[in-house]
Design goal:
Number of helices: 0
Helix content: under 10%
Number of strands: 9
Radius of gyration: 14 Å
Distance between the termini: 19 Å
Strand content: over 45%
Length: 103
């Protein structure tokens, strides 16, 4: 059974360009992409830059919001990085930083 967590443990950010969101281990929780063009593309990585392991590529072929909401958090061992965004106004990303005790 998962432990109930306090809202203060979570972080979120509205992202409009490639950016390192968390430089250390964390749990990826949610992303919502808001396209501006007919074709929208964003890649999310486990790592500090685009050389990390790909968590997900979010593509939209229509001007409609796309969500990534995993049933369970995705453990990002090396950090959380949002890569280059094309055709997007921006995206909302939510994650939970892990303490050094959690790893």
């Amino acid at each position: 059974m998962e432990q109930e967590r306090d809202a203060k443990e979570y972080a979120w950010k509205w992202v409009t360009a490639a950016e390192l969101l968390c430089p250390s281990a964390c749990d990826f929780l949610y992303a919502k992409v808001n396209p501006v063009d007919d074709t929208c593309n964003v890649t999310i990585y486990d790592g500090e830059d685009a050389s990390g392991a790909i968590i997900s590529v979010i593509d939209s072929q229509f001007v409609t919001n796309c969500e990534l909401s995993p049933a369970k958090p995705i453990y990002c061992r090396r950090g959380l990085y949002v890569g280059t965004m094309t055709g997007c106004v921006g995206m909302l990303v939510q994650w939970r930083p892990r303490s050094s005790k959690e790893g």
